[in-house]
């Protein structure tokens, strides 16, 4: 590990200076800063995409080069365009209602509620809920669905405002938001303030162990400020009076954790054995020591070389390559590898909010999925590899002309 660090860069949790490099992906634009056609000839801003690991608390994190407001106030990601994610949300709601005895007298609050994809299930069940979403354009979709949504960035101040208004959460939810928070301590303080006595917090986020073991470096992008192990997130929550009492390992986003937390003095939730089991798994993988983070950079470089070798050879053989999806992770991958339209012709995405725009940095055009049938590429590079089965099922027709799927992570795989 290198000993270089950006000037004045300290751990966002414990405040220790960041001196140990985890993974340096060079310079990259914001992963969700899609480019409109009339902006193609305008300059783009590229920021260092360099993750560090704190020597004190072992939190893996990026330096903050741009504000959360600049990233999230107008956002291009809408959760409702993935059927598998909608199904995941529905199953969660069904389980939570039964496990925690939620009914019409309960209050459910979701932080970063996006377009209401999850809360709509609570509304259908007659359970009062409130969404908190910083992106005005996304929140508007939720409001149109009849979901009470407050626009704003969640933290201590907003939590106090809600409490003053009489809002306390019996179930407080955050899916794929914890990693997006630049002021981690302020955010978790807010969770503690808003949680009702006897209430439960559930948070889902990509698992650092999966990122390391399955080579998921493309999930590192500027919108993800922090990357959590169970060992580290336990420290973060404990420092704000919250106790983890259970954890689920989930297949979503290539491998995520769902943690369950309550107030530290709440004896009503016994600690599950899954907590100790997973902590030991992480210790066995070396995540309790800096040595466990040392080999990651070379692993990432090998993946870059493999993808570029495949794409160059495909072009030399006269093959055509298109991509599927315009996810943030895909933009990290393509920019780190230096892939442009000399190697990949275009990408397609189901979201109409992205169609007609261009990927940041690479400027690959984003079309509707039908463009694949119209152009009949020889290979389809799946950028949201966590949805590979869903994509392969939806796009199976490329086999009609001998088309094949390419999955870049965890290692490059070609699927007939």
TrEMBL record:
Pfam families: Methyltransf_13 (PF08421), Methyltransf_14 (PF08484), Methyltransf_23 (PF13489). Transmembrane segments: none annotated. One of its GO terms (molecular function) is methyltransferase activity. Residues 251-410 form the C-methyltransferase domain. SUPFAM superfamilies: S-adenosyl-L-methionine-dependent methyltransferases (SSF53335). Residues 11-72 form the Methyltransferase putative zinc binding domain. The keyword Endoplasmic reticulum does not apply. Coiled coil: none annotated. Keywords: Methyltransferase, Transferase. The keyword ATP-binding does not apply. PANTHER family: BLL5978 PROTEIN, TRANS-ACONITATE 2-METHYLTRANSFERASE-RELATED. This is SAM-dependent methyltransferase. It comes from Mycolicibacterium sediminis.
